[in-house]
């Protein structure tokens, strides 16, 4: 069998780059499709020097351009003889500001990079994988910004919601070909995109984000690699949130609603409006004031 290969958009930086590292570790040939030539060339040189040899290549690609994406898919097939995995990691923050002020061109740019690209990749990689007849895996990047309105900026979040739903829809279309389509939905991950360090995130860690340590690119890349592997052979159409528990926690209403007695160190049972008595069993020390 020819070598397995992966095409990773946005593979020069952040979570795309960490995904490239995971696939190289697994013996894949990898093509990085990215717009930033300088960073991509540096990334390729680093991987090449650290044992990947000629299994890692770069093709300058604007993922929002159909001809570019189609060429990146063809190049991957030409370099390694086949295409097994597409990871759609390229992304930008895009338009921001009040909806009444956002320029249409900035809104469209955001949708082109974030959502149109995933359609283009699915179209062209899907064609090749279908023709190969040996299945395949597509892993998209959503965002927790797609899941609630108070997290990210408008165009980006709405486009990411599109990515997450396109993931589900494409999974149906490609299931007969054994091509699985899934997504990761990252929380706050310390990459060049957000430009924050774990120190900057200190107020969030263990509070808004329940896990008390910062999310790093490899936390997400590990899930990307899993979704693209045979270990995930029965998973398709799924969006896996990788956010240190932030979405599980939901709005942090604390003591405001339901008058949560646990926050005052009380343990017991609330029997609601049943007519039966509610009881307090004991009082315990409150260890983490301010968290749930
Ligand atoms: N960092 C976070 O907290 C976070 C949270 C949720 C979702 N995401 C998403 O995760 C993905 C990876 O982001 P990251 O944080 O690793 O960012 P990053 O900035 O480190 O990497 C993104 C890469 O995409 C490339 N890119 C941008 N536009 C492109 C285009 N038109 N064509 C080709 N390449 C292009 C950039 O050059 C860069 O190398 C993105 O889709 C992002 O929206 C990030």
Automatic annotation (TrEMBL):
PROSITE patterns assigned to the protein according to its UniProt record, in alphabetical order: ADH_SHORT (PS00061)
InterPro entries referenced in this protein's UniProt entry, alphabetically: NAD(P)-bd_dom_sf (IPR036291), Sc_DH/Rdtase_CS (IPR020904), SDR_fam (IPR002347)
Regions that span the bilayer: none
GO molecular function: oxidoreductase activity
Pfam families referenced in this protein's UniProt entry, alphabetically: adh_short_C2
UniProtKB keywords: Oxidoreductase
Superkingdom of source: Bacteria
Family the entry assigns: Belongs to the short-chain dehydrogenases/reductases (SDR) family.
Protein name per the record: NAD(P)-dependent dehydrogenase (Short-subunit alcohol dehydrogenase family)
Species per Swiss-Prot/TrEMBL record: Nocardia neocaledoniensis
Lineage: Bacteria, Bacillati, Actinomycetota, Actinomycetes, Mycobacteriales
């Amino acid at each position: 069998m020819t070598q397995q290969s992966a095409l990773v958009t946005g593979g020069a930086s952040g979570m795309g780059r960490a995904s490239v590292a995971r696939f190289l570790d697994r013996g894949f040939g990898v093509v990085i499709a990215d717009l930033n030539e300088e960073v991509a060339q540096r990334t390729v040189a680093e991987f090449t020097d650290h044992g990947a040899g000629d299994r890692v290549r770069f093709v300058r690609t604007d993922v929002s351009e159909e001809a570019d994406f189609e060429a990146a898919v063809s190049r991957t097939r030409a370099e390694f003889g086949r295409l097994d995995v597409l990871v759609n990691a390229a992304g930008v923050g895009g338009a921001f500001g009040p909806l009444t002020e956002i320029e249409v061109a900035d809104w469209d740019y955001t949708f082109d990079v974030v959502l149109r690209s995933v359609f283009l990749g699915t179209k062209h990689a899907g064609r090749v994988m279908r023709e190969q007849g040996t299945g395949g895996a597509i892993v998209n990047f959503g965002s927790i910004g797609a899941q609630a309105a108070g997290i990210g900026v408008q165009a980006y979040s709405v486009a990411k919601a599109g990515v997450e739903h396109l993931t589900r829809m494409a999974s149906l279309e490609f299931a007969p070909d054994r091509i699985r389509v899934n997504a990761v939905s990252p929380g706050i991950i310390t990459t060049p995109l957000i430009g924050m360090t774990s120190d900057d995130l200190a107020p969030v860690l263990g509070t808004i984000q329940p896990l008390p340590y910062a999310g790093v690119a490899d936390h997400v890349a590990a899930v990307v690699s899993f979704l693209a592997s045979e270990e995930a052979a029965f998973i398709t159409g799924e969006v896996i949130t990788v956010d240190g528990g932030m979405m599980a926690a939901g709005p942090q209403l604390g003591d405001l609603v339901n008058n949560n007695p646990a926050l005052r160190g009380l343990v017991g049972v609330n029997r609601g409006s049943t007519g039966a008595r509610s009881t307090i069993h004991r009082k315990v020390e409150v260890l983490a004031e301010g968290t749930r």
